[in-house]
Amino acid sequence: MSCVSLLALGTFNDWDAVGQWMSEQEGLEPGRDAASLHLLNLEVDNQVEESYFRILDNDKHVKYISIDVGIYNTEDLCFEPVLLSILPPFPPGPWNVGYIAKDDRGKPYFASTETKELPGIISTWHSVRVDYLTLHLGKSYPSHIFEASSPDFSST
């Protein structure tokens, strides 16, 4: 079983309730505001290959996280509130790429983190570029489609 989501941010209407539930789960470091993590996209194949996630941390930093096969069950990896609650604590310091594996006791942990210059899009079909972190997502529609606004554009 596998699942793919191109944009899961804003799927839930009651982030405060989800954040409260997530804070009560194991995995988040003490004092961390669970609602500060938002799943941007995922690609899960928990049987053959690593699973890949893009997570927005504190509305400022995008973290690219790979999870080794078999650490979590597929259903947990595909459901944002559960996924974010079972991740091991994020290591301190600046990093944007992390890899989660099992330690000697079988517990998930960040086996590595690093700051990498990630490839960007070279050739675009349109001259306007929008930084995702400047977007304000509004009303949501089925299939993870959202109304969005940005201070870079007029409201009309």
Characterise this structure.
It is a single chain. The protein is of the alpha+beta class and 156 residues long. Helix content is 13%, strand content 33%. It contains three helices and eight strands. It has helices at 15-23, 74-78, 80-86; strands at 2-5, 37-45, 51-57, 61-67, 97-102, 108-114, 136-141, 145-149. Strands 1-2-3-4-5-6 form a six-stranded mixed beta sheet. It has a two-stranded antiparallel ribbon with strand order 7-8. The termini are far apart. Mean pLDDT is 80; it is low at 4-28.
Outline the secondary-structure elements.
Layout (H helix, E strand, L loop, with lengths): L1 E4 L9 H9 L13 E9 L5 E7 L3 E7 L6 H5 L1 H7 L10 E6 L5 E7 L21 E6 L3 E5 L7
Parallel strand pairs: 4-5
Antiparallel strand pairs: 1-2, 2-3, 3-4, 5-6, 7-8
What can be said about this structure in brief?
The chain is α+β, with helices and mostly antiparallel strands and 156 residues long. It contains three helices and eight strands, in the order E-H-E-E-E-H-H-E-E-E-E. The chain has helices at 15-23, 74-78, 80-86, and strands at residues 2-5, 37-45, 51-57, 61-67, 97-102, 108-114, 136-141, 145-149.
Order of helices and strands: EHEEEHHEEEE
- Output mean pLDDT: 80
Form type = globular
Question: What is the first-to-last residue Cα distance?
Answer: 43 Å
Strand order of the largest sheet: 1-2-3-4-5-6
